[in-house]
């Protein structure tokens, strides 16, 4: 940033009037360079925050479950929102011990409280943006991710909110119920008339063979007695 701005200032070989066209052009280019550098820094900060969120989610996911279900995703996000509650409780305890420490860690407490409120609002409305762990490929990628930010572009991000996850859970339950109903209908499906007749013929032939064998045995017994 300093090098680029220095080059712009060196282009003016002599002192110019503040309202001259050359001064206005130099000021315009300087603002452009400054805004570009600010956008770059903001992008890096945002990338680091997203990377920290992904690492937390990866470390707190239940092992051997891939892909995640809507119910487990909702639990994971609710735990993520309340991840700073223990630290906030410690700050409250420290302040209650001594009157002189009332303002100690006040700025940190404000940051944690505002972060929790913002994330809770996102979860209740538009959703929190995380990798699509409902997708088996994306879920496996997140589990195997080594934490390097340059691989973040390979992930497919998706917003998960309370409303969206509840709807997905209802759809999954409805689909499983429909599958069970189909299976029960198939198991209770009535047989064709031809199949019924064939079974009746087999049953009648078996009964006849049993009766004939019993008659033969009775005749043989009578002959032996005589």
TrEMBL record:
Residue ranges, compositional bias (Basic and acidic residues): 171-183, 191-201
Region described as Disordered: spans on this chain: 171-201
Domain of life of the source: Eukaryota
InterPro entries given in the database record: Tma16 (IPR021346), Tma16_sf (IPR038356)
Any Gene Ontology CC annotation: nucleus
Family: Belongs to the TMA16 family.
Name by which UniProt lists this protein: Translation machinery-associated protein 16 homolog
């Amino acid at each position: 940033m300093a090098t680029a701005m220095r080059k712009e200032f060196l282009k003016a070989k002599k002192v110019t009037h503040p309202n001259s066209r050359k001064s206005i052009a130099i000021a315009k280019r300087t603002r452009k360079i400054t805004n570009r550098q600010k956008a770059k820094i903001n992008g890096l900060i945002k990338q680091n925050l997203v990377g920290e969120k992904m690492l937390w989610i990866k470390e707190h996911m239940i092992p051997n479950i891939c892909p995640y279900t809507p119910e487990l995703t909702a639990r994971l996000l609710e735990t993520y929102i309340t991840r700073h509650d223990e630290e906030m409780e410690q700050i409250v305890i420290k302040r209650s011990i001594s009157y002189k420490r009332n303002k100690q860690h006040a700025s940190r407490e404000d940051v944690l409280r505002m972060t929790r409120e913002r994330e809770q609002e996102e979860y209740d409305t538009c959703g929190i943006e995380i990798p699509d762990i409902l997708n088996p490929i994306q879920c496996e990628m997140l589990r195997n991710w080594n934490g390097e930010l340059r691989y973040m572009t390979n992930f497919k991000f998706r917003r998960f909110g309370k409303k969206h996850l509840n709807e997905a859970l209802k759809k999954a339950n409805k689909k499983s119920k429909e599958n069970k109903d189909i299976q029960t209908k198939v198991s209770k499906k009535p047989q064709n008339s031809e199949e019924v007749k064939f079974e009746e013929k087999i049953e009648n032939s078996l009964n006849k063979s049993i009766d004939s064998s019993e008659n033969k045995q009775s005749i043989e017994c009578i002959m032996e007695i005589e």
